[in-house]
Design goal:
238 residues; mainly alpha; globular
Length: 238
């Protein structure tokens, strides 16, 4: 039971801090409005780092269905635990989004732009294009899972605490290099959980949850994570 609790709380932390920096930078009447993409990217890396440090020894701190499914696909994580992990991650993501909304309720009320409000919860493409948006989420998650597995091959890199710092670097690198196309969800729970919460929360000047796009940051990361794990596993490391 403890690993599932860890995934639930860890993902809630991830979304509270990750979506929180977006709200901090985008919403009117926020003291950090206009902070920009660099602040968002670094803060998202830290939003991953803190729960990974906290719960890595308990659950592995996947915090991402694409990671759980990818690891299960190559036999380093039990398929029996995947459904429970995904449920915990999704519920945690929804809770994190709700906590973020409560934190910034006054700023949400003061913001007229409905698109900015939705952007605090979930991702959207800079230019809507099914193939390119799908590719962006696929390749971003491929890099995430491939690099995480690669860290485990570096002598000493997986020592307690050290490997978590590399995860921070991976997230920041992906965001700064590839994130401008779709907002780099690279995590089905990170996008779908807050998107559901956005749809449920009564909010002034609210737009749709953009369900027509929502399948891309779910399907593409899962495929990207699975392919990355399989490709990594095919390399003759020994």
């Amino acid at each position: 039971m403890l690993p599932y609790i860890a995934e639930f709380i860890g993902t809630a932390m991830l979304i509270l801090l990750g979506d929180g920096v977006v709200a901090n930078v985008l919403l009117d009447k926020s003291g950090m409005k206009g902070g920009g993409s660099v602040q968002i990217t670094i803060a998202w890396g830290l939003a991953v780092l803190l729960p990974v440090f906290t719960f890595g020894a308990v659950s592995g701190a996947h915090l991402n269905p694409a990671v759980s499914i990818g690891l299960a696909a190559i036999g380093v994580f039990s398929w029996d635990m995947v459904p429970g992990y995904i449920v915990a991650q999704m519920l945690g993501a929804m809770l994190g989004a709700l906590l973020m909304y409560i934190q910034f309720k006054c700023q949400f009320d003061a913001t007229e732009d409905a698109g900015l409000k939705r952007a605090c919860f979930c991702t959207a493409p800079a230019v809507p294009h099914t193939f390119h948006n799908f590719y962006s989420e696929f390749i971003g998650t491929f890099m995430l899972v491939f690099a995480i597995l690669g860290v485990g091959k570096v002598p000493g890199a997986s020592a307690p605490g050290i490997g978590n710092l590399y995860v921070f670097g991976i997230i920041v690198s992906i965001g700064m290099s590839l994130g401008g196309v779709t907002g780099y969800a690279i995590n089905p729970a990170r996008d779908l959980g807050p998107r559901i919460m956005y749809a449920l929360i009564p909010m002034k000047n609210k737009t749709t949850a953009n369900w027509g796009y929502s399948w891309i940051p779910v399907v593409a990361p899962i495929l990207g994570g699975v392919v990355a794990a399989i490709v990594f596993n095919l390399i003759p490391w020994a």
